[in-house]
Every structure is written in structure tokens, then in C-alpha cells.
Amino acid sequence: MKIYSTIKPFAYTCLLLIIGLVMTETNIAQSLHNDSIATGNLPNNPGLSLSNGNEYYQNNLYEKAESYYRNAKELASLQEPELRPKATYNLGNSLYRMGKYEDAATQYSDMGKLGFAAYHNMGNSYLQAQKYKEAIESYKNALKIEPTDQDTKYNLSYALEKLKQEQNQDNNSQNQDNQDNQDKENNKEQDKNNSKENQEGDKDQKQDSSDKGQGDKQDNQNKQEKGQQDQSDNKEQNGKSDKQSNDKEETNPQQQNPLESKAKENNITKEEAMRILQALKNEEKDVQKKVRKMKGKPSKVKKNW
User: Fold this and answer.
1) pTM above 0.85, yes or no
2) End-to-end distance of the chain based on CA atoms, in angstroms?
3) Domain carrying residue 89
4) For residue range 238-288, what is the model confidence (pLDDT) as tens digits?
5) Phi/psi zone of residue 300: left (φ > 0), alpha (ψ -120 to 50 degrees), beta?
6) Distance, CA of 82 to CA of 179 (rounded, Å)
7) Residue 202 within any structural domain of the chain
8) CA distance 161 to 154
9) Taking burial as the number of CB atoms within 10 A of a residue's CB, which of 7, 87, 250, 255 is the most buried?
10) Structural domain count, the chain
């Protein structure tokens, strides 16, 4: 009994020591965990860093969680590769909550072997980033694993509709750009034609002005020539009038003697012409005498009863 009683306190003491050691290790680990969170120092243990990141994530402190998840992912690649996909997945979730959708999709795709949740979340990330083609592909991959998931089906339909709207908008925008470019070309061509017409109009106006100037010059020249001609005609007319007046004054103011004119035409002298005229007068007198002798006395005319 004594021996038993002696052994019994010894065993109890050993049990207490073991319990104490376990509690001490737990307390030390918890203390280190609390200290790393409080001070912000990243631990060198991937599991501990992953655990700290989870606590920050659950408290909506996504930026802090991102730091611990990145640290856990880096450490896991070297120390515990089996923790790397989990750290990467949680890192993607933190980035998604922060609105860094493309970075989140990149983390999901870096998990290695992706499961349904990774494909689904990657589709959500691309959908939020308005990369609808990538979102559709991710949702299709998720449905290959879980074909009956209603949330993924709904998100896929929504992504397809958004892609259709985007394509229609792009087509309308392209058509509008083409129309704008066509309008610019038409306006440019119209401006070119207007400029050409203006140049031709200016040229025609200059030509008209030149023709008009030449016409005015020609009219002035014609007027001058006509004035000179009129002056010449007046001088000539005046010269003729003066000559006629002089001719009349040289002959007889009333009428020129026909005999003298005839004498001038036959180149005879005035004296010869006077002798011829006197001879003609004498002959006429002789003829009249003879006629009177031949007539005799006049007879009386009988009246009818």
C-alpha cells in the first residue's frame, strides 16, 4: 500500500508536468500569434500566417488579410506546398472584397488545380471587371464540375447578355465612327469643291473685269475714233460748204451763165462765146420774121347758130 501510495503521487505529479508542458506550448503559440497580429510582424510559419489572415478577413480587414495570405503563400511554396492553394484562394477572396477584380482572377487561376469554387469566383471577378468573355469561360468550367449549380447558371446567362449588349454597342460605335469619318470626308470634299468654285469664280470675275476693261477701252477708243471722224466730217463738210460758197462768189450770186459754163467746158474764150451768142440771137430774130410773114392776117371764127 505504501508503495502504491508512493507510486500514486509520483504518477500524478508526472501527469501534471505533462499537462503543464502542453499548456505552456499552447500559451506560447497563442502569445506569438497575438503578438504578430498586434505588432503587424509577419510570422515565418505559413500555417500561422494563414490563420492570422483568416482572422483579419473575418473582421473585414481585407488589406491586413491580404498581407498575411501573401506571406503564407510565399512560405508555403518553400515549407508546406499543400497550404499554397488554400493561401492563394483566400488571397483571391481578399482582393475580390477590395475591388481588385482582375488581381483576384489572377490569384484564382494560380491555384494549380482549380475546383468548382475557384472557377465560380474567378467568373465573378471577370464579370465585375467587365471582361465578359473570360467570365463566360470560367462559368462554363465551373458548370463542368457542378452542372446543376443555379447561381453559376444565372451568372453565365447574365454574362452572355452583357456581352451581347457590349457587342451591339461596339457595332453602333463603329458605325457612328464610320459615319463621322464619311461626313468628314464629304465635308472635306465639299470644302475642296467650294474652294475650287470660288477660285474659278474669282478667275471668271477677273476675266469679266478684264473683258469689261478692254470693252470700256475699246468703247472709249471707238468714241474717240468716232469723235475724230465726226470732227473730220465736220471739217470736210465745212470745207465743202466754204468751197461751194467760194465757187458761188466767183461766178454769179444768183445763177451761173450756161453759155459761160459751156464755153469753159469746150475750152473757148469768153469773147468767142459772146460772138456765138450774138449770132444765135440774130438768127432767132430772122426766123421769127419769116414765121410772121407766113402766117398773114388772122381769120375770124364763125359762130354756130
Assistant:
1) no
2) 238
3) 43-98
4) 555 554 444 443 434 344 454 455 555 556 677 777 888 888 888 777 777
5) beta
6) 58
7) no
8) 11
9) 87
10) 2
